[in-house]
Amino acid sequence: MTFEKLQLIAPLLQALKQEGYTTPTPIQQQAIPIVLEQRDLLGCAQTGTGKTAAFALPILQLLLEEGTIAGRKPIRTLVLTPTRELAIQIAESFTAYGHHTGLRNTVVFGGVGQKPQTDALRAGVDVLIATPGRLLDLMDQGYVDLRQLKIFVLDEADRMLDMGFVHDVKRIIAKLPQKRQSLFFSATMPPEIVKLSATILTNPLRVEVTPESTTAETIQQCVYFVDKANKKSLLIHLLRDSAIDNTLVFTRTKHGADRVARDLTKFGVKAEAIHGDKGQNARQRALSNFKEKKIRVLVATDIAARGIDIDKLSHVINYELPNVPESYVHRIGRTGRAGANGKAISFCDAEERAYLQDIQKLIGMRIPLITEHPFPMDPDADFAPVAKKGKGGSPRPPRKKARTRYDKPAGFGKEKPSGFKKTSESTASTSNPPKTRINSQGNKVEVKKKRWYRKGKA
C-alpha cells in the first residue's frame, strides 16, 4: 500500500515525500478513504499510530476540492484537542502537509496572551486547531465564527473526559452547524465515550487499528524491583549507558518531577521538568529543548503522556508506576512510534506492586523482570497486598480493627463472646445521676449497663 493508492492529490504527495513518509500506517489506510467520502468516522487509535495524518491529509484535500473562497477565509475545519502541546503538534502537521496547498491554519490555546491568536483569526484561516477553554472564550468575544464550518474533529476524546472538558465540548458542539462532517478519535472506548460519540456522529464508520489498551510490539518492556530509596541511584546508573540518547522519565506527582530533575542536574545530567504547575511558556520551552536535544532527560507527569510527538525517542522510564493502568500504555507509547523500536523501563518498589499487577492484567502480558542490577530490592521487603478496588477504581481503605470492649444495654446479648466475661455496673455517680426507665409494673427502675471484658482484665 502506498499513499498514491489512497487517491491523494499531487500537492499532498509532494509534501509527504519531503517529510519522508513512504508507507501509510494501518489507521491511515482505513481512515483516509472514509474521510474523502465525506462520511462520519469513529476512530479508536492510540497515540503513535499516525492518527493526525489520517485526518489532516484528507481534510486538506477536501478543502482544496471545495475551492477557495473570495475575501476573508472562513473557518471551514475545527480540530478540538485537550492540551496545548497536542494542539501545537497538530498545527505543525497541518502546516507540513499543506505546504503546497495555500491553505492556512492557526492554533489557539489558553495560558498566553490572545492578541497574536485574534490577529490570525481576523486575517482568516481555513483550519482552526483549539483547546476548549480558549475557544469558548474567543467565541464569546466574537472572534470565532463557525457558521460556515464543514468538518469537525474531536481528538483524544477520552482525555477530554479525564480532564473534565466534557461540558465545554458539549457547549461548543451546540454552536456548530447541524450539517457537517464529524470525525471522532479516542485511544479507548469506555461507555461514556461511546455515549458522547453518539451525540456527535451520524451513521459513522468505525476504524479500530489496535485492540483496546495494548502496547505496541515495537516497544521492549522491562521492570526493575528496587527500593524507593534507591530509585535515584538506579536511574543515574542506567543513564551512564550512552545508548540512552534521550529519555522521557515519568513520575506520579509534580513535586516528584521537580525533585528528579534537580537530582539529575546535580549529577551532571541535563534535565528539565514539565507538569501542570509549570507555566505554558515554561512547558513549551522545556519540550523544545528536549526535541532539539539541548537536554538529555525530560521529567514529566501524565500531562505529557499523550499528544506529544518526539522523533526517535529511544527510551521511556517509569520512575514511579502510574496508579491508573491505562496511563502506562499512553506513557510508553511515546517511544516505538511510526514503526521505530523503543524501550520502556519501569521501576517498582514494594508499595507499587499492586500497580504493576493491574498493568500486567490490562496489557495481557507479564513484563520481563531484570534482576541483575546494583540496587536489588531488599529480599525481606514487605510487599503490600493488592488492595481491592472500591467505587471509582480507588483502593478501599483498610477496615478498622474490631473493638475489644462491647457496651450493651441491659437485656441485649444473651450469648457471651468467647474469651470474655460479663459484669454489671450502675451508671450512677455524684456528677451523673442514674438513668431510669419505667418497667412493666409502672415502677421507676435504674438502667444498668452490661459490659464485656477480656478475662483477667476486668
Count of folded domains: 3
CATH top level assignment of the largest domain: Alpha Beta
Overall pLDDT metric: 82
The radius of gyration computed from the alpha-carbon positions, rounded to a whole number of angstroms, is 30 Å
What is the helix tally? 14
Strand order of the largest sheet: 3-4-2-5-6-1-7
> What sort of overall outline do the alpha carbons produce when their principal axes are compared?
globular
Classify the beta-strand content into a percent band.
15-25%
Tell me the CATH topology of the largest domain: Rossmann fold
Low-confidence stretches: 382-414, 424-428
- Gap between N and C termini: 86 Å
Helix content estimate: 25-40%
Largest sheet: 7 strands, parallel
Number of strands: 19
Overall CATH architecture of the largest domain:
3-Layer(aba) Sandwich
Describe the structure.
By secondary structure, the protein is of the alpha/beta class. It folds into three domains: 4-208, Rossmann fold (3-Layer(aba) Sandwich), CATH 3.40.50.300; 219-393, P-loop containing nucleotide triphosphate hydrolases (Rossmann fold, 3-Layer(aba) Sandwich), CATH 3.40.50.300; 406-454, no CATH class. The protein is built from 14 helices and 19 strands. α6 (132-140) crosses α8 and α13 packs across α14 (353-363). The longest helix has 16 residues, at 51-66. It is globular, with a radius of gyration of 30 Å.
